[in-house]
Design goal:
EC 1.4.1.21, NADP, single chain, binds 1,4-dihydronicotinamide adenine dinucleotide, binds oxaloacetate ion, five-stranded mixed β-sheet, 264 residues, 32% helix, NAD, 9 helices
């Protein structure tokens, strides 16, 4: 297994530390050309620094996307067509039908696979099993402290810099709209949608809550299987209050799962 990392932000840096501790090496970084100077600091020893899939060392087998929607859309298809397996945390990018189709056809062409890390949420296995029966409704609520929504469309309706008097909903609608409008904040909505009833039937509510200091994600689902409610209170990464540590941990788990003879 020869690993290249796409992006060198908060999730990528967590992943680097964790997989190096497991004895795995990072052979290369795929970075934006304009960020290669400032982004190249890493804990990996002497990795190749490139800005396109074609410039990656020939023996790379896996591209790990920790860069967000644009990075996946830009480099995911080329990597898959070249036969690299891709692990991504940028699940919301798949809400765009053109990107989705491009990823599917590229993987088919390259004989490769796109692996979706579970991200900041759990219970996706429950949804996947439940949808083989009739899954009637899936509702996802994402709640973060106000600073976790900075840089998102929440800024258009809420003053996130001053103290909000109470929890404020700034989005309700289908998962597709949430994922496309909040590329840095609603990847969980997309993961829930893909595991369950799809982008258009999954109902989403996004809330800025001044009374909390963690990222709280909740799924309520019902169907032939019965019903369940899943809630997680996730610590954010020290480098980025928008992103939960579990999202980075889920990328590490996907990487470590690749070489295991038994998948659990
Ligand atoms: N599935 C999930 O539960 C979660 C998914 N995410 C996704 O992960 C992404 C990354 O999160 P963080 O590391 O916290 O963000 P960050 O902002 O700390 O890091 C992003 C990194 O990606 C790089 N980048 C951006 N566009 C790029 C491109 N086109 N090509 C190459 N590199 C590019 C940036 O320069 C930066 O190094 C988020 O934008 C979000 O879409 C984040 C949290 C949870
Ligand atoms: O990290 C989180 O808590 C969730 C997140 O940003 C996303 O869904 O994109």
């Amino acid at each position: 297994m020869k690993i290249a990392l796409l992006g060198n932000g908060a999730i990528s840096r967590y992943v680097q530390q964790a997989i190096l501790k497991q004895g795995l090496h990072i052979e290369a970084f795929l970075l934006r050309p304009q960020r290669m100077d400032e982004d190249h600091q890493s804990v990996a020893s002497d990795p190749a620094i490139v800005s396109s899939v074609t410039a990656l060392p020939q023996d790379i087998t896996h591209l790990i996307d920790c860069a967000g929607h644009q990075g996946l859309a830009e480099h995911g298809p080329a990597a898959l067509r070249a036969g690299l397996d891709v692990i991504t945390v940028s699940i919301g990018a798949l809400a765009d039908p053109d990107i989705y189709d491009d990823l599917v056809s590229s993987a088919t062409q390259g004989g490769s696979r796109l692996h979706l890390a579970s991200g900041a949420i759990g219970a996706l296995d429950t949804l996947r099993a439940a949808r083989s029966g009739q899954l009637d409704s899936v509702r996802y609520t994402g709640r973060k402290p106000p600073q976790g929504w900075i840089g998102s469309p929440a800024e258009q309706s809420l003053d996130l810099q001053s103290s909000l008097p109470s929890a404020q909903t700034h989005f309700t609608g289908p998962a597709r709209d949430a994922a496309l409008r909040y590329p840095k904040n609603a990847n969980v909505a997309a993961a829930v949608a893909l595991a369950g009833v799809g982008f258009d039937a999954t109902e989403v509510e996004l809330i800025a809550d001044p009374t909390i200091s963690s990222n709280i994600h909740e799924i309520c689902a019902s169907g032939d299987f019965g019903s369940f409610t899943f809630s997680i209170t996730g610590n954010s990464l020290p480098d980025n209050p928008r992103s939960s540590a579990l999202a980075a941990m889920s990328v590490v788990a996907e990487i470590l799962a690749i070489n295991k003879p038994i998948s659990s």
